[in-house]
Design brief:
The structure is a single chain. By secondary structure, the chain is mostly helical. The protein has a single domain, classed as 3-Layer(aba) Sandwich (Rossmann fold). It contains 6 helices and no strands. The longest helix is centred in the last third of the chain and has 14 residues. It is globular. The N and C termini lie far apart (39 Å). The mean pLDDT is 84. Pfam families: GerE (PF00196). Keywords: DNA-binding. This is HTH luxR-type domain-containing protein. InterPro entries: Sig_transdc_resp-reg_C-effctor, Tscrpt_reg_LuxR_C, WalR-like, WH-like_DNA-bd_sf.
Length: 82
């Protein structure tokens, strides 16, 4: 499992525009998950892509929404699109 996680990190470096990361004070992991949320991936898909538990994705997504003053995925995407 650790090899898969390492290979994932090598292949996928997700980055949001730095002003979004700075504006909402996102961690690196939240940054990776936020970009996948923006791309329309489900939590299950994100968990599979990143080799982490579904519940971990939900927790990170919850933190992202709190930090961005959003209630849900749609509101988060609308907030960053401004």
């Amino acid at each position: 499992m650790e090899i898969n996680s390492y290979l994932y990190k090598l292949k996928n470096t997700y980055r949001l525009r730095s002003n979004i990361v700075d504006m909402y004070n996102l961690t690196n992991r939240e940054n990776e998950i936020a970009l996948q949320i923006i791309k329309g991936h489900s939590y299950k898909e994100i968990a599979e892509n990143m080799f982490i538990a579904y519940g971990t994705v939900r927790k990170h997504a919850s933190n992202i929404y709190v930090k961005s003053n959003s209630s849900n995925r749609v509101e988060f995407i609308n907030n960053i699109s401004r």
